[in-house]
Each structure stands twice: as structure tokens, then as C-alpha cells.
Amino acid sequence: MSDVWEIPFLNPKAKERVGYPAQKPVELLERIVRISTDAGDTVLGPFCGSGTTMVAAELINRKGIGIDISQDAVEIAEERLKKPCKTESRLLKTGIEAYKTKSDIERAILNQLDCDVVQRNKGIDGFLKKYYKNAPVAVKIQKATENFNDAVELLNNAGKKKKCSATILIRTQDDSLAINIPSNMIIIDDYKTQLQHKLVQFLPNVSDLYTE
Ligand SMILES: C[S@@+](CC[C@H](N)C(=O)[O-])C[C@H]1O[C@@H](n2cnc3c(N)ncnc32)[C@H](O)[C@@H]1O
What we know:
The protein has 7 helices and 7 strands; from the N terminus they run H-E-H-E-H-H-H-E-E-E-H-E-E-H. It has 2 domains: 26-94, 3-Layer(aba) Sandwich (Rossmann fold); 100-210. Strands 3-4-5-6-7 form a 5-stranded mixed sheet, sandwiched between helices. It has a two-stranded parallel ribbon with strand order 1-2. The protein starts with 25 loop residues before the first helix and ends in a 10-residue tail after the last helix. The chain has helices at 26-36, 52-59, 71-82, 90-94, 104-112, 148-161, 191-202; strands at residues 42-45, 63-66, 115-117, 126-128, 137-141, 166-171, 185-189. The protein is an alpha/beta fold. Helix 1 (26-36) packs across helix 2 (52-59). The protein binds S-adenosylmethionine. The site of S-adenosylmethionine has 13 residues, from loops.
């Protein structure tokens, strides 16, 4: 076990979720209880909230005693302990690597723009780490399967949802230009497209090199 634990937050539909505001994942409390006690020991949760510590204790054969100043918390914890359960995390099972969908080139571009990477989102590949005009700036890299217009539309819609002040589209294919590029969208050609443009500019016939 390393000294940094990666434990996913509870998703809204997780079966262990009981709606208590400060509820922690059973996975977290289970690890803490496991490394600090032996089977059969008794664990005290003096600020037990929804009872996660006692649920974890119960699931790995420890006894639990909970205390909380809030009557609501006590009732929720009691109810929860009638059927202690833990949500299996698909992320932990499959490993974080399985969720990383970016190619090396895409990662390099996002890295050079100093972005936080976003996985599994059709419209956004990352956000600049710095805000512009007090709002996020979304970045998208055009996919090989998308034409330019589709990429513009996907990014524009996603950027609106995230209330972005600006968006950046990295154009990876030299196909037709979009008719309506939103005024807050910046278009930047990727390295390959820029190189092709330069070559074609100086050696007009070089475009034959790129026809497949
Ligand atoms: C962060 S929550 C615990 C959440 C819990 N780990 C869970 O997963 O649900 C802290 C709890 O401490 C309780 N608390 C605050 N002051 C307290 C006190 N003086 N005595 C007992 N409980 C207290 C609150 O009611 C709250 O439920």
C-alpha cells in the first residue's frame, strides 16, 4: 500500500449512499480500520455520522460503537447497520489506466497548454488550469473521426454547459472551415497541420505527398 490512496468519491447512485452530507466511502474507512485493528477488535466512531466506520468494521469482522450528537445521524446509522453494504468501485477494479482515453499526442498537446485532462467527454478534452475572466476555458482536440464543423459544435455546446468564458479547438485535419465559429472560440492548428501548411506554402506540389 502506498502513502497516497486513490479512492473514488461515491457516485450519486452508489448503493451505500444514504444521503448524509459528510458521508465517506466505506472503502476509505475499511482501509483505516483494517490497518489499525485485528479481526474481533472493537472500533469506536465518536463522530460517526451516517455510521460508515461501523459499517466498515462490521464488513471485516470487527465490532463497532458509534456516537453522534445528531439524532438524524444516529437513526441513519442504525438503519444502515441493519444491512451493511459496500459499493464495489469499477474504477478500482479495472484500474485508472483503463479510463485514460487520450493518445500520447493528445496528452502532449494538453500538457503544453497546461491543462487538467478530462477523460470520456465528447466535447471537452481538458481545461486550462488558469481561469479567463473568472470562468473556465475548455480545450478540445478534433478527433480523426470528426469533421471540423462537428468538432466546433461539440466543443461549443460543452463549453456553454460548463459556463466557459472561452474555448480552444485544436484542429487536426485540414478539412472544410466551419461556417459559424463562435466569437469566444480560438482555433489552433496542431503541429502536423501547421507543418503541412508551411510545406504547401513553399513547395506547392508537396501536397501530393499527403494524398493517401
Ligand atoms: C464529518 S461527519 C462524520 C461523517 C461520517 N464519517 C460518515 O461517513 O457519515 C461528523 C459528525 O460529527 C458529529 N458531531 C459534531 N460534534 C459532535 C459532538 N460534540 N459529539 C458527537 N458528535 C458530534 C456531527 O453530527 C457529524 O455527524
